[in-house]
Design goal:
Number of helices: 14
Strand content: 5-15%
Number of domains: 2
Number of strands: 7
Distance between the termini: 73 Å
Bound molecules: zinc ion
Largest sheet: 5 strands, parallel
């Protein structure tokens, strides 16, 4: 696995079983994990299914076995035979074969299959057999928007009416389009339609919680919407070290999934337990950061928004937030003196660390607005150094590697020539004859 090119590991025998894309049967980006198979070949399907059954035999302890296709997109087989059906139809073909064979081996084991990337659009012809009630549907809207709750009726655009041609699927912009896929899959689910949400709050976007996002606020709404849409729960896709600067978003997830949503009193209790006597200073600080956060619009796409988040700030907003965060240093320091044990000291240190992290981000925005792009780039580089230097202090609570994967792009972006927005030529005034 890893990043190494695995092309050499293919033999002529195996090459004919992988997807033909752009006229070639090659590993997608040189990696097996993102490569699809030539699913119209019964042998390819069988060689996909057999190891799953062998695994199930060796692991009777497994409750739910995830059977996913490749982690790539627009890389499905374009050969003439495969084109007879959509990729999701081939997936359903595989599942219909797998389901009864798995039941023979392990009657209680469930197979999780998913709507994701290449399988966003549901099958057209092949139906999951009604008897395949050991299948559980997982809805993985990896392109969703985290500015708005999952069911927000005005976030993004509806799906195009026509299914796109093979390997030309684009991610819908926003939540309306993403949720439309769930609606299309829903009537096709076998058995009792058991399903759950696979969501990515703690994958990338938590890195900018309180700067762009407010997950503690968003998550309960997402879980409510998921339940209303018939999804029976949520699996968090992301790092296990996302308790930064607080554990509040995860606390809300845990409680909501257990049917005991958090109210404000419980949140205050969380602050009291985590921070000790001066917890209200921490509460005020977090409220203050959230009040100042930005609200990027979806139009530039999920991956662009964190990269260029400063474009949604103004010069005044950035300068005032930098000043406010500076002033909070002493406030948090003084409040942190009240810590009576290691847990409380750690909680205050994390909050102070986050204040510095947010301070770097806002100083980048401030410098961009002052037209000092080079200085902005230097601050972004200092931010990277800060994260690397302080990782040993926070690694149990914050996944520095993921933070860097977001922040490391900033110096590169800021080093690029700034592209001036295109100026539209005003229409010529009507000519007098
Ligand atoms: Zn094929
Ligand atoms: Zn949105």
């Amino acid at each position: 696995m890893g990043g190494a090119n695995q092309e050499d590991e293919l033999t002529e025998e195996t090459r004919r079983l992988i997807a033909q894309v752009g006229g070639k049967r090659e590993l997608w980006h040189g990696r097996g994990v993102v490569t699809e198979l030539c699913n119209s070949k019964p042998e390819a399907r069988e060689r996909f299914i057999r190891p799953i059954l062998e695994y199930a035999e060796r692991h009777p302890e497994v409750d739910a076995l995830h059977v996913w296709l490749s982690d790539g997109s627009n890389n499905t087989c374009e050969c003439e035979d495969c084109r007879r059906l959509t990729h999701s139809d081939w997936y359903a073909t595989i599942l219909n074969d797998l389901s009864p064979r798995l039941r023979q081996i392990s009657p209680n084991m469930r197979v999780v299959f998913l709507c994701y990337l290449n399988t966003l659009w549901p099958p057209e012809e092949v139906r999951l057999a009604p008897g395949c009630d050991n299948l559980v549907f997982m809805f993985a809207p990896s392109g969703r928007c985290y500015q708005h709750r999952l069911g927000a009726p005005d976030c993004g655009q509806p799906l195009p009416p026509e299914r796109p041609p093979v390997n030309q699927v684009t991610m819908p912009q926003g939540n309306v389009g993403n949720m439309a896929f769930l609606q299309r899959w829903r009537p096709l689910l076998p058995g009792d339609g058991d399903s759950f949400l696979f969501d990515y709050h703690f994958c990338w976007d938590w890195v900018l919680d309180h700067i762009i996002y407010d997950f503690a606020e968003l998550l309960p709404g997402d879980l409510e919407d998921a339940a209303a849409l018939g999804l029976g729960g949520m699996m968090c896709c992301g790092t296990q070290r996302c308790f930064y600067p607080l554990s509040l978003p995860m606390l809300r997830v845990a409680r909501s999934l257990a049917g005991r949503p958090c109210d404000e009193e419980q949140e205050r209790e969380y602050f009291r337990i985590a921070m000790g006597a001066e917890w209200e200073r921490a509460w005020d600080f977090i409220q203050g950061v959230d009040e100042r956060r930005v609200h990027p619009e979806w139009k530039q796409g999920r991956w662009e928004a964190p990269r260029l988040w400063w474009e949604w700030t103004t010069a005044e907003h950035a300068a005032a937030t930098v000043a406010w965060l500076d002033q909070q240093k002493a406030v948090l320091e003084e409040a942190g003196q009240s810590a009576e044990n290691d847990r409380e000291r750690q909680a205050w240190a994390l909050l102070q660390h986050f204040r510095e992290f947010a301070g770097f981000a806002w100083r980048v925005a401030d410098a961009v607005h002052r037209g000092e792009r080079d200085s902005a780039r230097q601050i972004a580089e200092e931010m990277v150094v800060f994260l690397l230097r302080t990782e040993p202090e926070v690694h149990r609570f914050a996944d520095t590697g993921l933070q860097l994967s977001v922040v490391k792009r900033w110096p590169e972006v800021l080093a690029e020539e700034q592209v001036e927005p295109a100026v539209e030529t005003p229409p010529l005034p009507p000519q007098e004859a």
